[in-house]
């Protein structure tokens, strides 16, 4: 029995990483704001770190936003350099 021919892998999909990371960062910060009024009750129940975990998630999200923006700019510069090398006009991504 013959095996069917394998198809080539599709190109990876481009996502708006900055929007995704920004949304996650906002959710972490909202979680922090929601938990702040309950900090004493959470501490009494042994869950006092929950609000600080949310704040840490928001802080790391800010780093992620910076990283994704820098990555997007580097990809754009790379594409523009490759287009210029081949004599093509730059695209307005």
Walk me through what this model shows.
By secondary structure, this protein is mostly helical. The chain has one domain. Helix content is 67%, strand content 0%. It contains three helices and no strands. It has helices spanning 17-35, 39-44, 49-85. Helix 1 runs antiparallel to helix 3. The N and C termini lie far apart (47 Å). The mean pLDDT is 91.
Summarize the structure.
With 93 residues, this protein is mostly helical.
Low-confidence stretches: none
What average pLDDT do the residues reach? 91
**Terminal CA distance:** 47 Å
Task: State the helical fraction.
Answer: 55-70%
For the sheet with most strands, the description reads: none
How many β-strand runs? 0
The coarse silhouette is: elongated
What is the number of independent domains? 1
As a whole number of angstroms, the C-alpha radius of gyration is 22 Å
Give the helices and strands as they follow along the chain. Answer: HHH
**Which band does the percent of strand residues land in?**
under 5%
Total number of helical segments?
A: 3
Structural class: mainly alpha
Quaternary structure of the protein: single chain
Organism: Peterkaempfera bronchialis
Protein name: DUF2530 domain-containing protein
Transmembrane segments: 20-38, 50-68
Keywords: Membrane, Transmembrane, Transmembrane helix
